[in-house]
Amino acid sequence: MAELPLLSLRSVAKSFGGVRAVSDISFDVQAGESVGLVGPNGAGKTTLFNCVCGQLRNDHGEILFQGRLLERLPTYKRARLGIGRTYQRVEIFTDMSVREHLLVAERARRGEGRLWKDLLNLSAPQRSELDNIEAIMELVGITALADTSVNALGLGHCRLVELARALAGQPKILLADEPSSGLDIHETAEVAKVLRTVQRERGTAVLLVEHDLSMVGEVVDRTVVMDLGLLLAIGTFNEVMGNPAVREAYLGQMGTS
Amino acid sequence: MVVLTICVGVVLQVRKGTVGRNLAAMRGSEMAAAGLGVNPTWQRIIVFALAGALAGFGGMLVTIQQQVASPNAWNTDYSLVFIVLVVTTGVATVEGAIQAGIGYYVVTQILTYLPSRLGGSSLVIVLFAFGALQYARHPEGVLEFQKRRSTQWLERQLFNRGGDPVGAPLYPSGADG
After folding, report:
1. Has this prediction a pTM greater than 0.90?
2. Reported ipTM
3. Which residues of chain A make contact with B14, given a CB cutoff of 8 A?
C-alpha cells in the first residue's frame, strides 16, 4: 500500500471576484520531502499557501493533511496539526524578545494558555521548553540574539527569528514564503542551509516559495511551477527549468527561442 | 490601595504568563499568532472576561463609597472621557490605567467647578477631540511613547560610547521621535 502523502492538494481553486488566483492545482508533498513552489509574480503561490494554512478558504477542491480534510479547520488548529509557516512580509511580534517569540510558538503548539495557571504563577517556562528553544536558536544561528528585542533587529535577523519561531512549533511541514526576500547573498545562503538542515536532520517537509531560483535548486527535491494560477510543470529542478513552457512563463517568447 | 495593588498584581501576573504573551503576540501580528496555534477568539474571550471582572470590581467599590448605584453617576460623556484618558496615556500599560484613573478624577473635578462661561461640562467634547488627535499621533499612548523615546535616547547614548549594535532598527521611531 502506497504511503499516505503528508500534504495533498486536489483540484484546489481560489478566486477573488472575477480573478482566478489559483485554478485546479493538484500535487502532493511526502513526509520529509522538500518541494519548491515557483512561478512569476501573480502566479498564485502565496494564495495557495494561505489556503493551506486556513487564512483563505479555497472555493473548490480539497486540501488533506495526513489524509485528514482541512476544509473547516481554522488556522490555529491547522498549525497544531503540524503546519508551520513563514511570511512573505515579515510578521513578527513587536516588543518581544527572540526567546519570547519561540516560547509563544512552543506553548501554542500544545494549545496551552490557561488563565488560572498564569494567576497561580504556574506557567513559568519549563526546563524542557527552554532546552527546545535553545536548540532551535542554535540551529538557526540566533543564540546570541536570544534576549534582544526584535524591534532592534534588521530584516535578515527578523527572517531568521520568523523561521526559528515556525520551527519551535515543531511542524511536520514548513511553508516558507520567500524566506530570502530582502536578504543579501550571505543571509540567503544561511537560510538555505537552515532549510536543508531542518529537512535532513529533523525530517520536516519543506514547501518553499522562492524567486531566487539558485536557492530553490539548492534546497528542493522536486519543483512545482505555477503561472497565472495554473500548474505549469512538476519535476526535479533541472527538469522543470528545461521545460519550454516554464522558460516562456519566466522569460516570454525569448526564453523558448 | 490594597484593591489597586491586588488588581495590578493580577494584571501583571497575566501579562507575564502564557495568556499575556499570546495577547502580546496577537497585538504584533494576529495572523502569525494564529499560524502558530494561538486561538485568537478564545484569547479575546479570556481578556474580555478578565477586564469585565476588574471593571465590575471597580464598580462595586464605587457603589460602596457612594452608598448608591445609579446609572446617572456614569453618563456617556464622562465614560468617553475615561476611555480617552486611558487610550491617550497608555493603552497597553498598567501605569496608563492608573494615570487615567487619577486624570479622570482631576478632570471631572475641574469640569464640575469650572464656570459655565468658560465652557463647563461642554469641554468634554473638546477633551474628546484632543484625545483623538493624541491617539492618532501616538497610538501606543503618550506616556508609552515618551517612555520609548527615552529608551531609544538612552540606547543611542550607549551606542555612541561603543556599545554593541545588533542591526538597523526594523521599525523606525516616530517622525517626531
Report:
1. no
2. 0.90
3. 115, 118-119
